[in-house]
């Protein structure tokens, strides 16, 4: 396992400590899935399937319940309503299929 | 007053590997000792266009401040954890990755914005990757902060950012080496069989 409980002492110190403690396993599962999928598939041209959606939904539901930091919570909740690809790469927004799928 | 600088670095690894390493540098536990915690706050995958957008919160140990500034940081409500919000966009078809990070804590004191991009190297697009990083640091126009102190905060931040950027580059290099090795040695899992 890449992200084990290697550093049990540190996450408790972070701002998102409640979420870090409550969601650490779901987060590890999601990040591990994402890192593998990105490296083996997405970045190499096989982007037609999102392999980690199930892990993401579980992890996100946990964050929604436990994330305390107001600023971070706002970003989390906003992200549901406004997919925001365009804001970082205006150059490519004119390309076909620019409309986000959800 | 704003301090800004640009850095460029060429990784002798292909774009897919370098960007994979860039995602991992904060989540691999041993890669960067000053990072305490990473949460992904949002992610959107567009499987048709090959695009991905994610927002992550990164908690780290703030740089040690000079004594004079410690009191100021405390009045500004900053704790002993520095939090950054990082927004990443990847266009896999165009092989473009952009990362914009901003501090979420210490904001009443300083505003740091970092814009990074990872692109195939123009001369060896399938083998090398160009990384560029633009950092701008602006001290908040606090009435309490004199120009001298503001300059000191900015320089201090610039130093610690330069240091963290160097550590980040080293971490990406190390992870790239690991990924390169894994690509050439068939992994234990049968799912890895599809790799060249």
UniProtKB/TrEMBL annotation, chain A:
It comes from the Eukaryota. InterPro entries: MDM35_apoptosis. GO terms for biological process: intermembrane lipid transfer; phospholipid translocation. Keywords: Disulfide bond. Transmembrane segments: none annotated. One of its GO terms (cellular component) is mitochondrial intermembrane space. Residues 82-102 are annotated as: Disordered. Belongs to the TRIAP1/MDM35 family. This is Uncharacterized protein.
From TrEMBL, chain B:
One of its GO terms (biological process) is phospholipid transport. GO terms for cellular component: mitochondrial intermembrane space. InterPro entries: PRELI/MSF1_dom, Slowmo/Ups. Pfam families: PRELI. Residues 2-184 form the PRELI/MSF1 domain. One of its GO terms (molecular function) is phosphatidic acid transfer activity. This is PRELI/MSF1 domain-containing protein.
